[in-house]
Every structure is written in structure tokens, then in C-alpha cells.
């Protein structure tokens, strides 16, 4: 819709023919954005070759776990290299690949000229109402990021550029873990103090792992770090928050995922981040507590009690450790 507002021809691909027909007939997407009229410039296709034919930009907007499969399909039919943009927020469990790494692994040079991540606090429900929204286009090739900035930017949708692809992807993926946890504490009936604690200490552990993976620390104070963390932990639109809320109220994970009918990225990402934290010896108490709730049957209240009674520590423990290391090296 943003691209159509900017006078681009938008070809929307969906893997379900019935959905493509419904979108073209009613100019709306009744399952996912009910009540919203889609511009005439938006045409839906169920044949991927028709959708990407002679386009110079392809936006991947599928759940993280569908990325590889859809990229393989694009690869098979692509005839011109296009700028690839992705908006998905996840890290693959077991392989620990970020979305851009999955795309790089899957797409050939014939299919992809450049790769850009578009991410930030951007619930679709508000974007379609043209409420002010700000996001970041990140790429190792800043010219490609600027191309995406130009394509998407308008008076309602402001796009910044960044070259820190790792930081932008890690922030966007890991905030969903904290949003699930924030939903849980809300579901348990805890108040705003608990949520503020989760957002602040959640950001600390996201940055801790992100820096270990090669991200720039400052990226986590930007839109794709603290910005997306705030919106996902506090918005009624967040599927991750809503799923957490149901868990906090006592529903089982299977039942929660079944009832959502949309992707809850934080569940798989919790598994990936938990594995990464163990692999790189990074302390991630909230992620570990959530992992126990999701996959080991620990009661949410018990997980919160464990977090509150952890061994005492300095608030700036990472900084203190760095300074202590430096002191040891200089003998001070
Ligand atoms: N919604 C939002 O506000 C935002 C979402 N994102 C991110 O964008 C990504 C997609 O999210 P969103 O669109 O909201 O997810 P939804 O669950 O709302 O929609 C997912 C869409 O992808 C389709 N799909 C699922 N599996 C496949 C597959 N294997 N092959 C092809 N299509 C598939 C679904 O089709 P079907 O109906 O058949 O299941 C559906 O049309 C996520 O990573 C999310 O974190 C980022 C910013 C904002
Ligand atoms: O990433 C999002 C908003 O920026 C969407 O979050 P949810 O997937 O939790 O709905």
C-alpha cells in the first residue's frame, strides 16, 4: 500500500489462488487486513513467475520459516537480477541464520543484485491507516539502501538508512522474544513496572548477543532496536504480545498458536536465541526463562520468580566487565 501510494505498480504474490482472486475481485485482503481498501495499482498473482516478471525490486514479506522455500521459487523463475528487500523478523533455529543469510545462501546472482532489510516499529494495521511510521532500510551497499528509502518514503512513512545489517536483523528478531515475555507478565496481572523492566533488561540482553554476533552497539538504540521493542511490547496489534498474554492467562502454547491464525515469530526465535546464547556463552536471562516456559513446561509465574531472585549483579555489568578486563591488561 505504501508503494502504491508512491505510484509504483505493485504485484502481490500469494501462494493461495483463492486469496489472489479475492484480493483482485474485492481490492481488499479480508483475512489479514479486513476493512482496508487496496489501491487499483495493486494486483495479486498466485503464479510467482507472473508476479516477478520484469520487476526491479522484490519484497519478501513472508514468515521467517517460509523464506527459504519462497526464495527457491523466486530463484527458479527469475530472469533479471532485482534488488531484494525483506521485512521478516526471525532467526532460524539450529542453523542460526538471519533472514539475509538465508536469502544470500538461496538466491543466485541472476536473481539478486542487492539485498536490503526494511525493519522498524511498523504494525501493518497502522501503516494502512497512513499513521506516521518510521523504519530503517539497512544494507551493506548504502546505495541500495537509499534506493529502497526512495521507493518507500512518503509523508506518512519515513525511512532512514543504516549499514548495520546484523544489528538491524538481530534487533527486529529478538524483540519478539521480549514481547512474548511482556505479554506473559501482563497476562499474569503484573503492571507497568514489570513491563518497563522487561523492555530495559530485554534490550540489554538483545544488545549483548547482537554485539557478540557482530552488530554495532548503537543500532540497538535506534528504530529497529528500542523502537521496535517498545511498539511490540506495548501494542495491542502485536501477535507476539497477544500470544504471551494468553500464555500468562494459563493457555497452552499449542492452543495459543492455533487460535492466533497468524505467525508468532518469537516462538522459533526464542529457540534460536537460546541456542546462540549457549553457544557463545552470552547471559540472556529473559530468553532462558521464556525458553523454559515455552519448551520445558515451566509455569510463567515460576519463571518470573526465578528472574527476580537471580544472583545479584551490577546494572551495567557488561561495561563493568569490559573495564575490569582493561584494568587487568593495564595492571590498574
Ligand atoms: N504484520 C506486521 O505488522 C509486520 C510483520 N513483519 C514481519 O513480516 C513477516 C510476515 O509477517 P505477516 O505478514 O504479518 O505474517 P502473517 O502470518 O500475518 O501472514 C503470513 C502470510 O505468509 C503466507 N505464507 C505462510 N507460509 C507460506 C509459505 N510457505 N509460502 C508462501 N506463503 C506463505 C501466509 O499464507 P496463508 O494465509 O496461506 O497462511 C500469509 O499470507 C514476519 O516475519 C513478521 O515478523 C514485520 C513488520 C510488521
Ligand atoms: O514487528 C512488528 C511491528 O513492528 C509486528 O509484530 P508482531 O509480529 O508481534 O505482530
Question: Would you mind describing this structure in some detail?
Answer:
This protein is an alpha/beta fold and 332 residues long. It has helices spanning 2-5, 17-26, 48-52, 67-77, 99-106, 124-127, 142-152, 165-187, 192-212, 223-234, 239-248, 253-260, 265-280, 285-295, 300-308, 317-330; strands at 10-13, 42-45, 57-60, 82-86, 112-119, 133-138, 157-162. The strands form two sheets. The protein has a five-stranded mixed sheet with strand order 3-4-5-6-7, sandwiched between helices. It binds NADPH dihydro-nicotinamide-adenine-dinucleotide phosphate and 1,3-dihydroxyacetonephosphate. The site of NADPH dihydro-nicotinamide-adenine-dinucleotide phosphate has 21 residues, from α4.
Task: Supply the key terms.
single chain; 332 residues; alpha/beta; Rossmann fold; N-(1-d-carboxylethyl)-l-norvaline Dehydrogenase, domain 2; 2 domains; 7 strands; globular; binds 1,3-dihydroxyacetonephosphate
List the helices and strands and how they pair.
Elements: H1 2-5, E1 10-13, H2 17-26, E2 42-45, H3 48-52, E3 57-60, H4 67-77, E4 82-86, H5 99-106, E5 112-119, H6 124-127, E6 133-138, H7 142-152, E7 157-162, H8 165-187, H9 192-212, H10 223-234, H11 239-248, H12 253-260, H13 265-280, H14 285-295, H15 300-308, H16 317-330
Parallel strand pairs: 1-2, 3-4, 4-5, 6-7
Antiparallel strand pairs: 5-6
Helix pairs in contact: 4-5, 8-9, 8-10, 8-11, 8-13, 9-10, 11-12, 13-14, 14-15
The structure holds NADPH dihydro-nicotinamide-adenine-dinucleotide phosphate and 1,3-dihydroxyacetonephosphate.
